Amino acid sequence: MTETPHRTDADLRPIHRALISVYDKTGVAEFARALSDCGVEILSSGGTAEAIESAGVPVRRVSDWTGFPQMLGHRVVTLHPKVHGGILADRDDPRHRADMETYGIEPIDLVCVGLYPFSEVAARGDATLAEAVEMIDIGGPAMIRAAAKNHRHVAVVTTAAQYEPVLEQMRRFDGCVSAGLRSTLAREAFALSCEYDSAIVDYLSRQAGEKLPDMLTLNYRKVRELRYGENPHQSAAFYAGRDASEPCIAGAELVAGDKEISFNNYYDANGALELVKEFSTPAVAIIKHANPAGCAVDDDLVEAYRKAYFGDVNACMGGIIAVNLPVTAELATAIVETYQRWGKQRGAGGFYAEIVIAPSFEKESVEIIRARKGWGPNVRLLSAGELDGSRNRERQLKYVVGGLLVQDRDLVGADESDWRVVTARTPDAAQRRDLAFADMVCKHVKSNAIVFAKDRTLLGAGAGQMSRVNSARLAGEIARNYGGGDEADTAGCVMASDAFLPFPDSLEWASDLGASAVIQPGGSKKDDDVVARADELDLTMVFTGRRHFNH
Q: Where, residue-wise, is CATH 3.40.140.20 in the chain?
């Protein structure tokens, strides 16, 4: 039975008149018909009015309502006191009611507006500035903001997804909409207006060549709330940008897995995917606590996985696996078997990868992972789409209390044309290949970062140490234990440093490990001493001139 509230009820407001003006006409005729069936008078203009009339729904034209025709090529249609007076009037204020009576203004109880698609047009590669500017909606945002401001009396609808919730309440409350829903709609309307304007500011700033504008506007939408943040006492949510043009964690599709993706899962999955994007040949990365526990490149994807897995088998447990090619049945089998075999050797079964993220998954590969005991509900499979080499030229943000640090993303790759050999020995083809690989992996390790690699395989990484020599020592210890063995074959490996070597001491660890080549940015006051020691140790050393700090 439908509740029939008293018309002066403070919570419920009746909808007698609605103004509808949308760019995307999907579902609008049905919405207008449902409103009309509830006894609502429909005001509209232009293509929206035509779409509603074509569906057989009575419409009153805005131009007839105001007494003014649309003008300036449809730039001015609803910018009129009768429209905005009808939206903004406080029906409980005697002065407002007097003005409405004096100027013949009738109240508008619901405003339904769908804005011009500015972001979509501006994102087109062939769109001109004039085309983008013409998609800057003026009347729409004005009506949205007016209705949202006066939400005590007016319901504002800004997306087709809101049609049914409004209609449901009108059916339930005899043509009325509750204060709670009006408030929710108003908040969403102001958020949309803010988002719309921020997209315009961002576009015009790019057009002006302004990389770091005086006023930074952010444009993100909540994807989902998370159980908690980095720790259980921190609330958290995941927000996604609306202009991502590359495969990324924000746009990845959940293919399988029932367990909720956590804050730390998202962060590590992003790091893993970003690392494998660096390589055009088959590559696998395994990330644990924001650092590579394993990474390898090989002509055979399954072999790349096996080499990556044995980088630090202890750290790989519960890690995030990223692959830059589709996951095959053979690869899926290798993943579950290596994890379970090593878990049994360690006397602790049930080990699994938290997430596997890849461009896509063959159907059989999903079945293999889901069928493995303990893996099915726990391992999340994320499909990110084909890694085509595209990159967003977006800003990277780092929060500090009270502010943000803003910078460009570090998208610099391994450009060997900038390399400078500074030692007597020069690297051969195999060493150059390993140096390029190590340099790219080191870019994704938290600074101070040292990486040891061999055969395009990460042997050990020293991350986040306060001194570089300690990073070298830690990376060397992990490298010696590559594959979980007591002593790995590290002879001929290479070392990479994310910043210059301030002293020759790190070279001692490299030489002791059996390294034959080193790659670093150079630029230290002690460069001459470092190069001299490299020559004494019979190492070849390359300066890149590029630092890759990753705090």
A: 250-383, 416-543
